[in-house]
Every structure is written in C-alpha cells, then in structure tokens.
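From the shared-data thread, chain only:
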Amino acid sequence: MVAGTSQRVETRLTTMELVEGCLVVQRYREGVKIDRAGFEENRRARLELVQGRPHAMLSVFPADIDFELEVTTTDHFGPERQQGTLVALAVVANDTLAASLSRLFFTYYPQVFHTAVFTDETEALAWLRANSAPST
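Structure, as tokens:
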C-alpha cells in the first residue's frame, strides 16, 4: 500500500518499516501481548531507523490485540518529547476496544505532535501525509 524503498526491522511485537523517506509503518503482530518493555523496544528501533530525522508513524493494531494495563498508564513518547523528531502519529485500530483505548491514551497524554485514531489504513495514510512535515 505504501510505495517506495524501505528498511525493515523486526521487534518482539512488531514489524517496522521506514518508507517514503520519513514514514515509519509499525504493524503489531497478531497474538502478541503488548507490554512496556515491548513499547520501549519499538521506540528504540524506530529512532534507530530514522537516525534522528523528523518522521511520521503509522501504527497498526490487529483485531483483538492483547495488552498489559500498564501500557495505558505511561506516556511512551515522553522520553523523546524534547527531540521533536516525531511529527505525526496515526493509529489504525481494527477493533472498538483498541480504538477507544488509543483515543483515551491521547486524551490523558496530549502530545506535542499531531495524533489521530482510525479504523481505515488508507484514511490514516492520507491524514499522515496531510499532517506531517513537508519532507514526509
């Protein structure tokens, strides 16, 4: 769905690709349980992929994703807030619970970058392209 060259990284929870220069597409695997350690592993992998450049991220959750409650009570983007490298984040939630929890997370932890939650990947990509820095 996303054209162009890419670099790929596999983490315990996701497959992560850097595409279109500065767009990270992060797809969570079915059957995994999301935890804080996994979120941190993903954050480090993403920062390594982008090498300090401003970027946008599309994060796709499969239906019926399992997670530890602790991941909803931590601002996972806080450690990089001063860097200003993440400019927009679109979450694609393939079930009602994941969509609701994602919206609730961004309500409790407002970010310095643009955020939105979608149920359609095409709409999320269009939104990211419209709400990202010109280089993405």
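The longest helix spans residues 36-50.
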